[in-house]
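Saturday, quiet lab. Running sequence design on the structure tokens for the scaffold JK sent over.
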């Protein structure tokens, strides 16, 4: 624990300053795009410290949640073919159109939980006669690990590539006008890889202040404060509150290896239409590791489960407790949507801490 980022007196001073600035503002809607930020905000009751006209909402920042039902169905189709499918634990219970990976496993499918893609590739190396497919999800934070692994992976290994990139989704949100966002708290982990550069076009295009923030309570409070200060001064910039980790240029080595292996593609996000250039697909040189091509899986897009409002959660249109089935028809032991499954999902976090989020 970094105690200096939990100091009460400093937090009080930041809150006092936030309240002072808010008096001169009409309304400030600040969106974060990171499940870990949602955890910090809810766990520490940060919303309860803010004045009524300063609202912090969650956006499409949970990698499991933005993965579509169709991608879950693709993973299930691969397991149904008798292949060994490896996945992070959070994906197991996410409902597809008719089943989940957990359901496939219960019926004898070879679905294995791994902690990293390296573990998945090791399973392939140790079982050369078995085809192993890893469900590669996540943003710019996890994509470099996938890329690095594929450079030395055995021939019986492949990935169902579901990686996405965050700034394109922020652009679509602002362009669509569905939700009016006055400022973004940018994700610390993603920013450690991409740096500040990819956010700047958004600020130039939409005049929206952004602050890259860390994950301690004071990081988030300072992020909010810096956004409000920019709003007060009529400025819009990309600021870096998390400079102890995030460098302006990001992580050049990680970016290089990502660019070597992936190219941008158009992809749908849960609750969103196709977002141009927001996905990562394998370049031709790495196509032997592309499970979609290797096993020729074709799965229909059946949309999201009936009654599921996860798309609206991910677009910042509703809070978890505004979904009619939150805590009733949908709970962690019987999830309807991924936002109740993933530890980074807004509904799971709200349910866990029993707070309005
Ligand atoms: S309560 Fe369930 S169905 Fe509703 S938005 Fe949350 S996860 Fe989705």
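Result came back. Writing it out in full:
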């Amino acid at each position: 624990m970094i105690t200096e980022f939990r100091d009460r007196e400093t937090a009080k001073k930041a809150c006092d300053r936030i309240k002072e600035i808010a008096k001169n503002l009409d309304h400030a809607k600040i969106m974060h795009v990171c499940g870990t930020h949602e955890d910090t905000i809810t766990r520490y009751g940060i919303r309860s410290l803010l004045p009524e006209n300063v609202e912090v909402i969650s956006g499409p920042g949970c990698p499991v949640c933005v993965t579509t039902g169709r991608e879950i169905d693709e993973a299930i189709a691969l397991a149904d073919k008798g292949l060994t499918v490896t996945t992070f634990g959070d994906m197991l219970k996410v409902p597809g159109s008719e089943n989940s990976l957990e359901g496939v496993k219960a019926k004898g499918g070879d679905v294995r939980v791994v902690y990293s893609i390296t573990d998945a590739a090791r399973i392939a190396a140790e079982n050369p006669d078995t085809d192993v497919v890893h469900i590669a999800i996540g943003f710019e934070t996890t994509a470099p690990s996938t890329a690095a692994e594929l450079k030395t992976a055995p021939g019986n290994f492949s990935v169902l590539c579901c990686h996405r990139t965050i700034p394109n989704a922020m652009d679509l949100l602002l362009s669509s006008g569905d939700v009016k966002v006055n400022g973004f708290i940018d994700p610390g982990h993603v920013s450690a890889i991409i740096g500040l550069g990819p956010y700047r076009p958004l600020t130039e295009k939409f005049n929206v202040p952004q602050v890259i923030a860390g994950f301690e309570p004071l990081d988030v409070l300072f992020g909010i404060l810096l956004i409000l200060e920019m709003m007060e001064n009529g400025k819009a910039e990309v600021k870096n509150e998390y400079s102890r980790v995030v460098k302006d240029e990001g992580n050049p080595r990680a970016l290089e290896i990502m660019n070597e292996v992936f190219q941008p593609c158009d992809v749908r996000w849960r609750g969103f239409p196709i977002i141009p250039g927001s996905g990562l697909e394998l370049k031709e040189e790495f196509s032997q590791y592309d499970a979609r091509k290797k096993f020729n899986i074709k799965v229909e897009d059946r949309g999201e489960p009936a009654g599921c409002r996860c798309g609206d959660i991910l677009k910042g249109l509703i809070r978890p407790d505004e979904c009619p089935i939150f805590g009733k028809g949908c709970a962690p032991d019987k999830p309807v949507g991924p936002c109740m499954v993933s530890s980074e999902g807004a509904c799971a976090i709200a349910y866990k801490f029993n707070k309005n989020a």
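Notes for JK: Residues 217-232 form the longest helix (16 residues). Residues 144 and 254 are 5 Å apart (CA to CA). Ask whether to fix the surface positions before the next round.
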